[in-house]
Design brief:
The complex is a heterodimer. Chain A is an alpha+beta fold. Chain A contains 4 helices and 5 strands. Chain A folds into 2 domains: about 1-50, no CATH class; about 65-160, RNA polymerase, RBP11-like subunit (Gyrase A, domain 2, 2-Layer Sandwich). Helices cover about 30% and strands about 20% of the residues of chain A. Chain A has a 4-stranded antiparallel sheet with strand order 2-3-5-4, covered by helices on one side. Residues about 1-20 and about 30-45 of chain A have low confidence and may be disordered. By secondary structure, chain B is of the alpha+beta class. Chain B starts with 16 loop residues before the first strand and ends in a 63-residue tail after the last helix. Mean pLDDT of chain B is about 80; it is low at about 1-10, about 140-155 and about 310-375. The chains are: A alpha+beta, B alpha+beta. Chains A and B meet through strand 1, helix 2, strand 2, helix 3 and helix 4 of A and strand 1, strand 2, helix 1, strand 3 and helix 2 of B. Strand 1 of chain A pairs antiparallel with strand 3 of chain B. Bound molecules: zinc ion. The site of zinc ion has 7 residues of chain B, from loops. Chain B: Pfam families: RNA_pol_A_bac, RNA_pol_L.
Chain lengths: ~170, ~375
């Protein structure tokens, strides 16, 4: 049908919409399906198969930040899946968890570098559940970061008073 | 340096330590000690990629007869440092209720330059960008110039208003955008939005973050290549070597020791004062962790979701009295620390941050209803 040519020239789904105004440029944005993210971005390069970069940190509709399942073969063990997170959180949690005397095993992996997901496996001694161990690790890290923030503020104020800053 | 010192376990209030070594208006060189490599590194990664800032994201080209192609120009405009003052009050366009963009989620910068009749090229600078509202009303003339922090320590009060170009060069020009020959003209409207560097590097508040630990390679995390007989003779020594003792001769290698001291050179782009970058990095990382706490608090130990906030009212009568929001079975004599968690006090994410403090959040509000209140552990 000839009408098709005029109706929807773009492939369904991924990007490729006709520009609203051909003179409007994205200053560097990957293709995007959600017009609210991009506004009326006009001409832009649409490279097929390249995921939108916000998919690295924005949860998709209905996606949960964390899901986890108890391990069936091993007692007090669970596999957590963190969505839209990377080594920043994965390694931080892993490192904290292995310091806990209740944690017998903690490790994480990023199954594939193109997907913003990591898996964390935790096994405890049974005094706490794996979930509690992760929650506690997070709480301790929040507290530690808070101490760091205060310590830095203190040092910064001291430096300011001393006025000895401009020596760079 | 005693690598056996396990932070937080010795009962004392040993939090992370900071020693500021050198600063100027964009940079801080500091030493971080009594923390773990993982925390220092996660903080570094967060500061590089996840602090919200503002950058030009959309460029409407009304006229461009310069030699630069439209998209080339758009890219250059995107990279111009814009003030992040009060970014926290700005919303992401994707979260905004507006159609396309509005004054709550965008800053409009207009640029109009032309070379009418000069044989000399007209240079177009970041200072030529003028802020206006979405409807086109000019925003107070904020031709602002950073007058160079007096003592080398800058503060966010010295930044121009939100979204305006940050100009730090002595001439007050800002970045060079393009040059116009006689008869060439440039008329563009830039829409600057809030974003993070994970999406595009133009949103990075940092130019670079130097990060080093163990300058004497006592931990042997590095294998130094050498061609002669001794690696030490062939490698320059680290600038940080004077801040740590080298391993004494003949001492046995401690394979289980861990780094606790980190040398960080935090170099900002000027978009945000360097101390603010660190604070923002800490806050962003705390929010990340808080999201995890909140999420897991609404999940049972077997991985099933609790019935959301309904658990609040529904289970209220039946659940044990809230043993203080943070005094769970697990509470204060925890394995790791001993310090009472600092949040719930005046922390960065008190009430204003999403995901943690939010109305009747799972954390705190629902404390008693959480599965670990009474479970068999
Ligand atoms: Zn808006």
């Amino acid at each position: 049908m000839a009408v098709d040519i005029y109706e929807s020239p773009s492939p369904k789904g991924k990007g490729g919409r006709m520009p609203y105004a051909h003179s409007s440029y994205s200053a560097g944005y990957a293709a995007n399906k959600d017009p609210r993210v991009n506004g009326n971005v006009g001409s832009k390069m649409v490279v097929d198969g390249v995921p939108d970069r916000h998919e690295l940190f924005l949860l998709a509709d209905g996606e949960k930040k964390i899901t986890f399942e108890p391990e069936t073969r091993v007692p007090n063990a669970a596999m957590f899946t963190f969505n839209k997170e990377d080594h920043t959180l994965g390694n931080l949690l892993r490192a904290k968890l292995v310091k806990s005397p209740h944690v017998m095993f903690a490790a994480y992996q990023v199954p594939h570098p193109l997907f913003a997901v990591f898996k964390l496996r935790v096994q405890t001694d049974g005094d706490v559940s794996p979930k509690e161990a992760v929650v506690q690790a997070c709480k301790d890290l929040v507290a530690e970061l808070q101490m760091l923030d205060q310590e830095f503020t203190k040092e910064w104020e001291l430096k300011k008073i001393a006025g000895a800053g401009a020596d760079m | 340096m005693d690598f056996n010192t396990e932070y937080g376990v010795d009962g004392e209030d040993t939090g992370p330590r900071v020693t500021i070594r050198r600063t100027n208006e964009t940079t801080i060189d500091f030493m971080l000690s009594s923390t773990s490599l993982s925390l220092a590194n996660s903080l570094r990664r967060t500061m590089l990629a996840e602090i919200p800032t503002i950058a030009v994201d959309l460029v409407e080209i009304e006229a461009n007869t310069s030699v630069l192609a439209d998209e080339f120009l758009a890219h250059r405009l995107g990279l111009i440092p814009l003030s992040t003052r009060n970014v926290e009050d700005m919303i992401y366009t994707r979260d905004c209720t507006c159609e396309e963009f509005c004054d709550n989620c965008a800053v409009i910068l207009r640029l109009h330059a032309a070379n009418r009749n000069s044989d000399e090229n007209v240079k177009v600078f970041a200072k030529d960008l003028f802020a206006e509202t979405v409807s086109g009303q000019p925003i107070q003339d904020a031709r602002y110039q950073r007058n160079g922090a007096v003592d080398g320590l800058s503060s966010s009060e010295e930044l121009p208003p939100r979204g305006q170009p940050v100009i730090m060069d002595p001439k007050g020009n800002g970045s060079l955008i393009c040059q116009l020959r006689r008869g060439q003209e440039l008329r563009v409207r830039c829409i600057a939005k809030k974003g993070i560097a994970k999406e595009h590097a133009k949103w990075a508040p940092t130019a670079a973050i130097g990060f080093e630990y163990d300058p004497h390679n006592k931990l042997r995390h590095t294998t130094l290549w050498y061609e002669g007989t001794n690696a030490k003779e062939e490698w320059p020594e680290s600038k940080n070597k004077d801040w740590e003792e080298p391993a004494p001769d003949g001492e046995a290698f401690r394979y289980d020791s861990e780094p606790t001291q980190f040398y960080v050179n935090l170099e900002g782009t000027g978009v945000m004062p360097p101390d603010q970058i660190l604070h923002a990095g800490i806050k962003t990382l705390q929010q990340k962790l808080a999201t995890v706490i909140q999420q897991l608090s609404t999940t049972t130990d077997s991985g099933h979701e609790l019935n959301g906030a309904a658990g609040d009212a529904g289970m209220g009568g039946m659940s044990p009295p809230d043993p203080a929001a943070n005094g769970t079975a697990y509470g204060n004599q925890t394995a790791y620390g001993g310090q009472t968690p600092a949040y719930a006090q005046q922390t960065a994410y008190g009430g204003q941050t999403p995901g943690y403090g939010g109305a009747g959040s799972a954390y705190g509000g629902m404390g008693g209803a959480t599965p670990y209140g009474r479970s068999g552990y």
